[in-house]
Amino acid sequence: MEAINHQSGAAPVLQQHEFVWIRDFLYKRAGIVLNDNKQAMVVGRLEKRLRHHGLTSYTEYFRLFGRPGFENETTMAIDLLTTNETYFFREPKHFEYLTQHILPNHSPGKTFRVWSAASSSGEEAYTLAMLLADHSRLGAWEIVGTDISNRILEKARRGLYPTNGSEKIPPALLKKYCLKGTGEFEGYFLIDPALRKHVKFMYANLIGNLPSMEMFDVIFLRNVMIYFDMETKQRLLERITKYLLPGGYFYVSHSESLNGMKTDLQIVTPSIYRKPATA
Ligand SMILES: C[S@@+](CC[C@H](N)C(=O)[O-])C[C@H]1O[C@@H](n2cnc3c(N)ncnc32)[C@H](O)[C@@H]1O
Asked: Nearest Cα to 252, choosing from 275, 279, 215, 219?
């Protein structure tokens, strides 16, 4: 079937060979595996870009990638094809383990550093920030959030969220570390700038060259490996754990695991691993 053009009023159709092209492209650029049932998702997310450029087929749209004058289009397409679902205090048991077993054992003389890899819009990083700020004996601390989506990183840096996103934040922490929006920000809350200054967000593609960073006490890599195949996961695990200090902790989500992967990390409780102290 040929793509129907805009003049006829119908939306362009994503042909099978076009789906295969974007699927391979996304895998090569971001490591993300799109299953065959994701055609509707691709259309839902990219259709507006075709409209924006007045194009009538996906082939024409994909030809823009890398063309002079359209350098940002590739980044934008990858941005749109990523899934950014996240929320504050997601998987609360992870944070309980942090406050009960990790923070009390950290020596206050050293800056405590956490990496929220694939941070999305920042809720995970700011959840950590509230807990670290609230731990009276911690001393200096900092958090780095990274993601492949520049659009979502902008949102993270702003730290402004709709009020209904605050439901899972314990009331005492909400009161202490978040500011209620008023006037044009009615219906929103802002992460307190005093907290935000401990949190830095930057671009990093987990399958590309990782940025130069200091080592971390804890790395969160949650709800992103689900989009990768085994080979990509294995390569990522080897590269990312180089940033983990000996004795440091590595978190994945409860729906992920390192089963079947080669690693010297040791499981301490489901979905939380530790690098041997002597590594
Ligand atoms: C579902 S969110 C997870 C957010 C958060 N970690 C959590 O668990 O709530 C997945 C994030 O992974 C990011 N992502 C996908 N592929 C990536 C890659 N190759 N490099 C870096 N980030 C990537 C997406 O942009 C998205 O923001």
From this structure: 219
Q: How far is the CA of 228 from the centre of ligand 1 (A)?
A: 11
Give me ligand 1 centre to Cα 235, in Å. 17
pLDDT band at 2, cuts 50/70/90? very low
**Whether the CB of 205 sits within 6 Å of ligand 1:** yes
Q: What average pLDDT does range 198-206 have in this prediction?
A: 97
Ligand 1 pocket check for 233: Cβ under 6 Å: no
CA dist 114 → 27, 55, 133, 241, 250 (Å): 28, 44, 13, 13, 10
Tokens of 116: 């929220």
Q: How many CB atoms are located within 10 Å of the residue 137 CB?
A: 9
Separation of alpha carbons 26 and 79, rounded Å: 10
Q: Can you give the pLDDT at residue 104? A: 95
Helices then strands, each counted (H, E), the chain: 10, 10
Mutate to test the pocket of ligand 1, among 124, 148, 220, 250 (most ligand atoms within 8 A of CB): 148
Q: What is the pTM of this model?
A: 0.94
Distance CA 3, CA 12 (A): 5
pLDDT at 56 over 90: yes
* Residue 206, pLDDT above cutoff 50: yes
Confidence band for 155, pLDDT divided at 50, 70 and 90: very high
Q: Whose CA is nearest to atom 11 of ligand 1?
A: 118
- Alpha helix positions (H), the chain: 16-30, 39-53, 58-63, 71-81, 92-97, 123-134, 150-158, 171-177, 193-196, 230-240
